[in-house]
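Hi L.,

You mentioned the student needs an example of a multi-chain input paired with its predicted structure. This one should do, with 570 residues in total across all chains.
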Amino acid sequence: MRAANLSFFAISAAALVLPLAVTNPYYLHTAIAMMVNAVLALSLNFILGYVGEKSLGHAAFFGIGGYTAALLALNLGVPAWGTLLAGGVVSGLFGLAVGFPTLRLRGPYFAIATLGFGAILQLIATNWTSLTKGPMGIPGVPPLAFAGLIFRNERPYYYVALLLLALAAYLTWRLAHSRIGRAFVAIRQNFDLAESVGIDTFRFKLAAFVLGTVLAGVVGAFYAHYTNFISPKALESYITLNVVTMVIIGGEGTLIGPILGAILVTLLPEVLRVAENFRLVIFGFILLLTIIYAPSGIVGLARAAWQKRGGERLA
Amino acid sequence: MPEQILQVSDLTIRFGGLVAVDGVSFSVPQGGITGLIGPNGAGKTTIFNAVTGFLAPTGGRILFAGQDVTRRKPHELAALGLARTFQHTSLFPDLTVRQNVWTAMHLALPETFWQVLATPPRRHPDGEQRVQEILDLLELAERADQAASSLPYGEQRKLEIALALAVKPRLLLLDEPAAGMNPEEAQRLTETIQQLRRLGLTILLVEHNMRLVMGVCDYIHVIEHGRKIAEGAPSQVAHDPKVIEVYLGRRGTNA
Ligand SMILES: Nc1ncnc2c1ncn2[C@@H]1O[C@H](COP(=O)(O)OP(=O)(O)O)[C@@H](O)[C@H]1O
Ligand SMILES: [Mg+2]
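Structure written out for the whole complex:
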């Protein structure tokens, strides 16, 4: 516990001072992308990791947040920050609409519904040109600003992303150690038993899903402001695959796992420098290997190694 | 006559063409242990599933503590004080024994979303004490930090009872708790069930181990092919010709 606290403070401190030491915008951009991915992974982790329901359209909620922010800012002049909130609310309402009818059913309905929802939203974003400007996307999403200061370079965005990540991590940590998190895990571990000890499985599944979609919407809105742009690419299914990969290779149903997964999935293409199409193949392959050989992800492997080494001392 | 905690009337359950339960009526008085016995496939588990809300009955009515609870959901029934174990071992396998019981204390520890997020983490001394009591009662305290899936079979079955007790049941339904146990484990389970009775619990017991059933039950209902064929005190039922025929007429049923 001590060691964990210490490393937590060390990492937080490092994250806080990093932009002061690193000025290369490319590195800062990579760090922001990493944190956005980590928030997305944590947002999917509630339903996919803790509760264990296959949510296969997560990019759609990221995209809804982005489009909501872009449209509100450009068409109605809603100030930034308000747009982040709105991105979360609108995305959460869509989450509610998808989850409410499907999460009460057992079987693959929810997985199919989320998959279908992702595909439909991508079609809408591409084809409803009067609203979304179609495949070209919406340029000119205004930057974020604070106290009259307009965010023009990476550094302030870095801190906003860090704040969002801290928020997502806090939510995960507190829920995981509460009755609510225990209910999530109970549903994943044994649905019938969860019901029979009094857990309203439908309510908790819906809560986990909607919470995740709100968070995905907020970070989607943030990303639209940061890149000043949103297009149907934000809703593409390969983004969903990326996020699912992060959660699973890191370790589903843990706090650290999805963050580690996000770091890996963000860095790997930068390191490998391969064509985008090939990345998909590589991610698919890694995902498959993980599911077969390390179903609890990196965190699971680390735990097993730790127990092997220190099992005697712990007991 | 003591108050009836559970009243099942004319319960019928069909699976497609198969009538698994055919107009069964019985009631369970407050306090004591009622047995529900019958050969494999008689419909006992199906009755349990209907009573606990896992199955919607085709017909009939279920009253729990005087309230019509037919077609309620399992978690709603748990909140009313109805707890069960399952015929096939059913635990939260990757959680430790203590975490299993904590999780099953769900109803006893109400905590809203906002409380969780907006107030500092807090302990629940009452809850912790209750978990410990349950672990002690079922002699699982020494196993508290082991994963449920790593327990020997007999203790897994006891943990299931522990989880049901965490619900604070007014009626506890046990579905073949001794199934697969060796005689020694079954004997200890019998003692545990006797102890639960002394604590004032009301139990509805499905069990094939006749020594256990005859030893602990106050009253027994016998089901065959989805129909009730006999009822009475253990000694009465044991001498009922219809029951003897059902059980002895089938070679090999160890019941
Ligand atoms: N979900 C189901 N679908 C179809 N048939 C079922 C189902 N559950 C039980 N049955 C059938 O109902 C009958 C009663 O089964 P069950 O209640 O498990 O018997 P018991 O618990 O007395 O051994 C059996 O014939 C069984 O095959
Ligand atoms: Mg059965």
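You could point out the following to them. Chain A is about 75% helix and 5% strand. Residues 311-315 of chain A have pLDDT under 50 and may be disordered.

Best wishes,
N.
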